[in-house]
Amino acid sequence: MQNPGPRKKLLWQLPFLTLLIVGSVLIIRQQQSMPYQHNEGFVFGTSYHITYQCDSDLHRSIQAELQKVDNSLSPFNERSIITAVNQNRKVATDKMFQEVFQKAMEISRETGGAFDITVAPLVNAWGFGFKSGQHPSPRQVDSLLLLVGYEKVSMKGGQVQKQNPQTMLDCSAIAKGYGADVVARLLRSRDVTNFMVEVGGEIVTSGVNAKRLPWKIGVTKPTDDSLSTCNELQTVLNVTDKAMATSGNYRNFYYKGGKKYAHTIDPKTGYPVQHSLLSATVLASDCATADAYATSFMVLGIEKARSVLERHPELMAYFIYSDEKGQNAVWFSPSLKDKVEGQ
What we know:
Blueprint: H1 5-33, E1 36-43, E2 46-53, H2 59-73, H3 81-86, H4 95-110, H5 120-132, H6 138-145, E3 153-156, E4 159-162, H7 172-189, E5 195-199, E6 202-206, E7 216-220, E8 233-238, E9 243-248, E10 253-256, E11 259-262, E12 277-284, H8 287-300, H9 302-311, E13 316-322, E14 328-332
Antiparallel strand pairs: 1-2, 2-5, 3-4, 5-6, 6-9, 7-8, 9-12, 10-11, 12-13, 13-14
């Protein structure tokens, strides 16, 4: 007589296995039928576009989070913490300000000062100079350089300490990326796993898009297009579960003596950089980091930027530069190869 034990055990397991299979199918169907929400608006003086899979619209919560960032870090907001810091009013910084400040200081050290949130006076002087056609004099540049330098500011007891009260902070080259990170955190806290957050061109992605495919992000081809009317793509990157930021000079430059001068200002020299790098796209685990390093690389140029990348294998970069013949050429991190379409 056969032992009925194993067979009896299998019969007991069948309902549970069936329930598990049916439950899995229902979950998959629910995920596929769950709609993708689309939200957009303006913050930090730029636009944002957010796509995410959720059965409810979270735009009000998203707006609230972005407003917190604006209230902390926007120099355009008269009531923001950074405005109070720049006006030398005694103000206690919040967690967001402290997080961005510490990350900015860290990346400044890692890039030898190529990234510097105290560069605002120089950027403003050259910006007005480009518009008026009257560039700041060497004497003006030397005077402003006395106010610039990330080592001249520090954080103590939640308050910003300045060596010179005229030093001003500008987090524009990291705040948009940080804003994208903040929205991504909110979505993850609501168990949203499929999303793309874009704030002023800085992007965080997770999961898949509505077609159940990895998110694809275009890198704009550098063209002499000061009006930003041309959006021809250089390449498309398959990006998911990553943050991506791009910094480029190709829409902000002027000619003088037959040479192209970029609007990116070197915090060390006080003058616009002059090198062949036209666009720097950086992929990182968070967008604030990608944003800051993309700006840094535009200051450093391609060779020094590659040296930084060698020390930071967690970063990936896609560079578009002008070769010896004046033609656009491309270099990207070897680890990025499987993400570049057509490679």
